[in-house]
Amino acid sequence: MAALLLKGVSIASIDGVLFDKDGTLSHSEPNLLKLAEQRIKTAVDLWSATGDASQSRCLEETLRKAFGMHQSTLHPGGTLAVAAREDNILSMATVFCLFELTWTEALNLAHNCFEGVDQEFGCSHQPSPLLPDAGKVLQRFQDGGLLNAVISNDTSRGIRRFLDHHQLSSRIASIWSADDIPRKPDPKAVDQLCRRLGISPQRCALVGDAETDLQMAIDADIGCVIGYTGGWSLPPDLPSAEHLLDHWSDLELDSDT
Fold it and tell me: Is residue 25 within 8 Å of residue 130, measured between CB atoms?
């Protein structure tokens, strides 16, 4: 058990911390924007080959709105920032339906788009960089006797690749990914992850950058709910946060408690 300090003030006594990944540990926005651009270009190209090419511009703009894109920024609560890959496929397919494709046609086109782009993107791009001091916090918490875990809507492979790339795997006791059932934001995902760790949700803190993360934590009876605001160009709106964290350097541990 250790005291979690925010700007020097004790906010909880905990045994472990559950971390979101994208926008919390990783600076994901630049890579996600590149991914979105490739998906949209591919989607428009596929559409133009089968549909009404005169509507291509309108399709592109609708897809941008669906993914939460605005000029050179990504909405931190939007589909691409928060939802899992399968959810984003459904989002794209729904947009295709607005352009008069059947659901079967739309879903097939969306799957074809994602499969091609994701394979190319995964091979050509390194994992997103760590946000400042995130790695130091993980090390500090591990050294202080806490169990660190990652709960994310990325795939297990994506999480492991990120952790391995930044040499963080030894600092993470367990993960919960989009491949696990149920996936977040189902509060049972938190319950199951805490069981893997062997600790009570009430003795955990959760740090996330999305309102869905924080609502999930509250519903799972997590002991300390922290909203992280420093991962996006547009700071997320997190009304359910018990505490707001702007910089990882503001979070410390007093293991003498």
Answer: yes
Summarised one tens digit per residue, pLDDT across range 181-218 is 999 999 999 999 999 999 999 999 999 999 999 999 99
Kindly list the domain boundaries of the chain, sorted by start residue. Answer: 2-28+131-254, 29-124
Q: What is the pTM of this model?
A: 0.90
Q: For domain 2-28+131-254, give the fold.
A: Rossmann fold (3.40.50)
Interval 96-113: pLDDT, tens? 999 989 999 999 999 999
Given a contact cutoff of 8 angstroms between Cβ atoms, the answer to whether 107 and 93 are in contact is yes
